[in-house]
Structure formats: C-alpha cells, structure tokens
Sequence to fold (323 residues):
Amino acid sequence: MNDHLLSCDWGTSTFRLLLLHTPTSRVEAVIQTDNGNAAMYQHWLDQGRPERASFYRSYLQQQVKALSRTCRHALEGLPLMLSGMSSSSIGLCELPYDELPFELDGQLPGHRYFEATNEFPNPIWVFTGLKSATDVMRGEEMQVLGLFPALPEARQTAICIFPGTHSKHIQLHAGRILDFHTYMTGEMFQLMGHHSILKASVEMAQTDNTGISPHFAQGVKVGAQTPLLNALFHVRSRQLLQGEAAADNAQFLSGLLIGSELSTLKDPKAAIVLCAGKKLSPHYRAALDALALPHRCLPASAVEQAVSSGHIRLAAALGICSA
Fold:
C-alpha cells in the first residue's frame, strides 16, 4: 500500500498539485499554476477538440514531471486524486453531481477512475461535486470532507462558512451535508469596485494593504440591515455628502457585502464555523464580531490544506494508501 499520494485541486482559474506523505499528511512538494480549467478548456477548443481526457491528462503529466523534478523523486505509479472543476463541463471529464444529503463519514463521492497507461503512468480518481434543488458546488465539499474530523459541531448542527469569490454556507447536521447556499460576495466586490458607478468612489487596492477599519464594521452593519440594492448606493452618497475618502469607502463596500451575506445566519441552534484562508479570515472574523454572532474559526492552515486532507481520507477509504 502506498504511503504517498498525489493530490490535485484543479479549479476554474488555478491548478495546484501536491505530493503528500499520507501517514502524517505532510506536504512534501507542491506546484501551482494559473492554468485552471477555464484556460485549459479554451486551449482544448483552440486545438480542434481532441479527445478531451487525453488532452487534459497530457497537461497533468507535464505537471507531475515538474513536481518530480522539484522533489527529486520518481512519481510514476502513485495514485492521483483530482477534484474541483475537473469533473465539470470544462474539466477533464464531466460527472453528474451527487445529491443531498451527503454522509461525511463513509460515503464515497461519485467518481471516475482512469487506469495508468504507458503515456500517463499514474492512476487517476476524478471526484464530482454536490447539488441541491437550487445550487451546485465543486470543491468545497472536498474541503468539508477533509475538515470533518476537526468539526465536532458537524455531529450536531452547524453552518460552515467558506469565504471566496463565491462564498459557500454549508449546513451540516448529524454528520451529513444537508444543504448549502452560494453568495457571490467576492465577485460582487470586484464588479462594483471596477465596473460600476461606484468605481469612482472607492480605491480598491487599499483593501489588500490596510487592516480592518471602522468603516468596514460600519459597512457590515449597514449591509446586514439594509436591502442590498439600496445599501450599495450608500457608497456613492458617502463620498458625495460626507466627503469619505475612496480608501475608506472601499472598506465600507467590503463590509457592506459581507454583512449582507452574513445577515442570512438566523438559526440560533446552528454553530457557526468559519473556514477561511489567511487572506479573508480577518475580514469575516471582524464581520461576525460586528454582528455579535458567536463563532469558531478553524486555523487558516487547516483550511488551506483541507482538499488534500479530503483526498487522503478518500484514498484510505478506497484502500489505495495508508492514512
């Protein structure tokens, strides 16, 4: 049985491949590129639509070889676990979504297996995502699987918040994913700040270079209490009527959108668990505090390695590696 595993999180805009020591979950080597599935799909179209799985596997092979050079070890034959957008309509192979509820302790996600070949000597398991009646996700479900051992709240009732371009609120109960909702918070921030009338009222670069300001907390409270389409124009009126600086207004806009997202957290019986990387964790922690919502924050390092942890759990369940 293998004690090493290749873990690949292939999203819409990024590609990340890791070599893992499964008994310790140690990352021994990593390679990351901006060649996500959207770019790969366009390249596949530009090349005249050759056999898709082989086309994508040829890129995987290049990256496995690059990882091999990085760690100075032969990686032929190691199992490769693949999730994210790889199972989507723009990925290596399209797989149907699994339906809810989804058991986090024992249920294998839908997947497709590709045997090792002479051209690509690593067996591949591609895992699918989840759907509800009104929503879909590919990627966060693998993070929940990886974090599940560190989520005692999931044995009761919990809401896990995964901030991002499209934030996810994932409802857990009795060890199962029962439901989830997507919020276009990050994308709205970019659209409003760069492509709307508000762009003249904000200085977007400042949101990455400064700490959390009182303007952010003010925005959180307004966003949680005011209909969003009305609240957004407050960014403009703050500049015109109060002379607010563009940098402060960017903080206000950020808080406003996050506050609107978090205003949906209304179940007093559900423990709130923030599952955020180091970039967004401070903003969401500050927003939850501003709204007086009790919560627990998982370590950013654990969240950032959650996909790999999920891959290790699934590989062990499949009997292809030790864990």
About this structure: The radius of gyration is 21 Å. The first helix runs from residue 37 to 46. Residues 254 and 260 are 10 Å apart (CA to CA).
